[in-house]
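Hey, can you fold this one?
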Amino acid sequence: MKHHASDIHALAGAYALDALDAEETDTFARHLDQCEACRREVAEFHATTARLAATTTREAPAALKQRTMDAIDGVRQLPPRLNPPSATPDRGRRLRRKALPWGLAAALVAAASFAGLAAWQHQEARDAEQQSRRAQQNLDTISGVLAAPDAQTVHGKTANGALTTVVTSTSQNRAVFTATGLPAPAPGRTYQLWLQHDGTMLPAGLVHQDGTVLVDGDPADATALGLTLEPATGSSRPTTTPLLVLSLPA
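Sure. Predicted structure:
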């Protein structure tokens, strides 16, 4: 990917993803020595990609071992085989006949218990796989926007002091929003993004904390991006004074 020197600030996302060629990497690395804003932006992109990558893995539930042990404890065990020297062959056959129903019952109970456990584990694995797939797709989309040859970057500052960056790509038809220093919202509240189309603000996703998120909606014809505080479930239209209204590149 090639950029003009005047666009060097827009290379922060691609640099963080190692998507630049050798010449661009050297040029931007020298630029980082003199640009605090880009150093901060690269650090945030690195932290965000690490957090997104971490969501593609999932540890086994801590309670899994205990549930397994509980299932084992609930299975009736097969009685020990008794074969004392004084036992006659007929008595031994009677003991084995009596033990057979208990052993069969124990096997059936064990099979039912472990079948249920296996079904639960299978569902847990499917849920984890789906979550991992969604997280990976999200990471791939963000990476595509940040590394796009036509990526354009604008910076802003919210009314409550957070530094923000919006990266847009016409070829990807997506936008990425990054916030640093965003204060935690009050209980029951969250931050919400908005895209302005023809003077109307349309919902564009929720932001719960610092980091990078994909902007929902089509940024192609949007003229600005806004940020407000809304109820935790979000709103259909802004209900508070915007903390940020950032003009997007044409």
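The CA atoms of residues 170 and 220 lie 7 Å apart. Let me know if you want another pass with a different chain boundary.
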